Amino acid sequence: MSTYDFKAQRLFVEAPLDIGARVVPTPAARNYLLNVLRLRADDPMLLFNGRDGEWRARIELTSRKEAALIALEQTRAQTAAGDLDYAFAPLKQARLDYMVQKAAEMGVARLIPVLTRRTQVRRVNLERLRANVIEAAEQCGLLNPPEIAEARDLSDWLASLPAGRLLIFCDEDAEVADPIAILRRAAPVGEPRPGASATLLIGPEGGFDEAEREKILRKPNVLRLSLGPRILRADTAAVAALALVQSVLGDWS
C-alpha cells in the first residue's frame, strides 16, 4: 500500500511554511478550494512552496467567502531539486501545455524555451508555462516545480552552456542505434547517480536546419541520440527522451 496521501488536495503557495504558519490563498485558489472542490475545515489539505517541504494543513473559514490555511505538521522534508534541464523549441498552445506538464512529471529541474529557425511559436507565455508546471506538481506530489527560463535564440543559448556539461542532442538525422547503450556510455562509472546532471535538447516539428545542427555538434560533450526509426512529434519525443535519460542517467536508475 502506498504511504502517500492521494486523497488530500495539494496546493502550491508562495508563502513560507512552518508550524502554525497562516497562509491566505489567492482569490483564484480560494475560489477553487471553496466553490469548486467545496472543501470544509476538516478536509485533508497539503501545502508546498518548493522550499520548506510539504505540510499538512487545515482550512480556517473566516467568513462565507474567505478562508486561511493553517500549517499543522510537515509530512515530507524538502528535497534538493535535480539537475536535468530540458531545452525545447516552443510549440502551439495545447501541445506546449501537455509537453511542459509531462516534463515536470518526469523530473525536469529547468525548462528552457529555445528559438530555432523552424520554431512554430516565437512568443512564449512564461506565466502560462509556470501555471502548467505548478498544476503538474500539485497533482503528482512533486516538491520542486521546474524553473522556467526566458526564451532564447539557439545560438545565444548554446554559447551560454557551462563548459563540460553533458548535452543530449535528440537528432532526427542521427544514425538509428540503441539509445540506452549510447546513454550508458555517458554514465559515470562507479559513482552513485541520484539524478541526471545534463541538458536534453529537442528541436521543432520541422527539425533543425543543417547550420543549426553543425553548431550544436561543435559543442564539447555532445551526445547525439536517435529516438528510433519513426518520426515523433516534439511532445511525444520529449516524453520518450526523458524516460530514457531518467532510466539510464537519472533517478530511475
Q: How would you portray this structure in words?
A:
30% of the residues lie in helices and 23% in strands. By secondary structure, the protein is an alpha/beta fold. The chain folds into two domains: 9-76, Hypothetical PUA domain-like, domain 1 (Ribosomal Protein L25, Chain P), CATH 2.40.240.20; 83-248, SPOUT methyltransferase, trefoil knot domain (Alpha/beta knot, 3-Layer(aba) Sandwich).
* Topology pattern, helix = H, strand = E: EEHEEEEHEHEEHEHEHEH
Q: What is the CATH homology-level superfamily of the largest domain? A: SPOUT methyltransferase, trefoil knot domain
* Gap from first CA to last CA: 23 Å
Proportion of residues in extended strands: 15-25%
Helix content: 25-40%
Q: Quickly count the helices.
A: 7
Mean residue pLDDT: 91
